[in-house]
Amino acid sequence: MQSIEDVRTNLLDLITASLTPREVLRSVELKSLYSQLTELAPELRSEFGKAVNALKVELESAIDARELSLDNDDVEPLDVTAPWDVNTGPIELLPTEQGTQHPLTKELEVVIDIFTRMGFDAIESRQIDDDFHMFGSLNFPENHPARDGYDTFHTQESFIAPAHTSTMQNRILKSGKDKLEAGGQIAAISYGRVFRNEDVDTTHEHTFHQVEGVFVSEKATLGDMLGVLRAFFESYYGQTLKIKTQPGYFPFVEPGLEFMIEKPAALGGNPLSSGGEWLEMLGCGMIHPNVLRAADIDPEKYQGFAWGGGVERLVMLKYSIEDLRYFESGKLAFLRKFV
Ligand code: DAH
Fold this sequence. Notes:
- By secondary structure, this protein is an alpha+beta fold.
- Helix 1 (4-17) runs parallel beside helix 3 and helix 2 (28-39) packs antiparallel against helix 3 (42-72).
- The chain has helices at residues 4-17, 28-39, 42-72, 84-88, 103-117, 131-134, 169-181, 222-237, 289-294, 311-319, 326-329, 332-335, and strands at 121-124, 153-154, 160-161, 186-195, 207-217, 243-247, 253-262, 278-287, 303-310.
- The protein has a seven-stranded mixed sheet with strand order 1-4-5-9-8-7-6. A two-stranded antiparallel sheet has the order 2-3.
- The protein has twelve helices and nine strands.
- The two termini are 46 Å apart.
- The radius of gyration is 35 Å and the shape is elongated.
- A hairpin with a 5-residue loop joins strand 6 and strand 7 (253-262).
- 39% of the residues lie in helices and 18% in strands.
- Bound molecules: 3,4-dihydroxyphenylalanine.
- 3,4-dihydroxyphenylalanine is lined by residues 164, 166, 212, 250, 253, 256, 283-285, 306-308.
């Protein structure tokens, strides 16, 4: 139980610091003095009561004085046209150590690291593009129904929010042409955000990420491509994997393939079950001659392979994430699992 003197010192301090000093009269400390009074033996009550009343009078006059000084405080003129620090001093920033890298950023770094160690350059894809890079340069004929499969967002000015990272193929090919003709090869990946006008559910998002790969030389083969892809997936999941392909149609490759891995036991698969569980990881194939021509590369002399697939799908398998929508959700409970 606090003595009258303790309460007095505390409350007077509060009054001098407060912008609303009158609230002190409703403080618990003061109330507790009144309740002590009712518990005292009758002969002690009168003296204690007087002391409490005297304290209240003292507090009231301190409050009056504080209120008067608050009213009279010199108000600093505020220059609303000045930069913030002139008026207020530096603003307080949230502590940065509480932020973390997004899981996709972290995993993309792993992906980029694997491919750059294999000798691929890595460039980020664009987030706004045009019809030529989205379709024309990739051997999609005008008005071809294959264009509809990409549920592409267009702006009123006919720009495109890219629906795949294949938009970067023509740029990669053009910028690698000199090196190719000097006896080298083109080897690059492009990674970034892509957009589709799709209904959102556990495996579909309007915004997601892809990684595209392009390799061109005088003698690149489909076998080389399967070797590169196998090496990538085995490195990313840290174990040997069974792979297979099946035919797939993409206008920019011939032949076109879907590349699959068997879901390994370590990642929740059951390879002993009849035939295992095959997961389609990406699309790939030998680059169509028209795609090389669109970059002014001679398809009689050079050949190449390309592939492209979703990053979220890779990461979901690695960490057993069941809902694609978590990545864009900003849910802290999800993000903190990757700290
Ligand atoms: N761009 C395709 C898609 O998003 C994926 C793809 C398929 C990329 C085959 C390629 C490829 O480079 O060769 O559906």
